[in-house]
From TrEMBL:
<dbReference type="InterPro" id="IPR014737">
    <property type="entry name" value="Transposase_Tn5-like_C"/>
</dbReference>
<dbReference type="Pfam" id="PF02281">
    <property type="entry name" value="Dimer_Tnp_Tn5"/>
</dbReference>
<feature type="domain" description="Transposase Tn5 dimerisation">
    <location>
        <begin position="18"/>
        <end position="58"/>
    </location>
</feature>
<protein>
    <recommendedName>
        <fullName>Transposase Tn5 dimerisation domain-containing protein</fullName>
    </recommendedName>
</protein>
<dbReference type="InterPro" id="IPR012337">
    <property type="entry name" value="RNaseH-like_sf"/>
</dbReference>
<dbReference type="InterPro" id="IPR003201">
    <property type="entry name" value="Transposase_Tn5"/>
</dbReference>
Amino acid sequence: MQLEKLERLEPTLAFYMIIAWRVLYLTLLGRECPEMPCDVVFAEKEWQTIYIVAKCKPPPE
């Protein structure tokens, strides 16, 4: 990314802040409701992709 100018930096920071907020929200939600299934928050393709990357094997049915 070329962030030398303010008009390039501001949208990037806003995007990163949204991602950081979602990670924090999911962390707190996981602590409060550890038994909640992941498909409540993630779409099927999202959680399957994360599972494959984290476990290096196909996701369960």
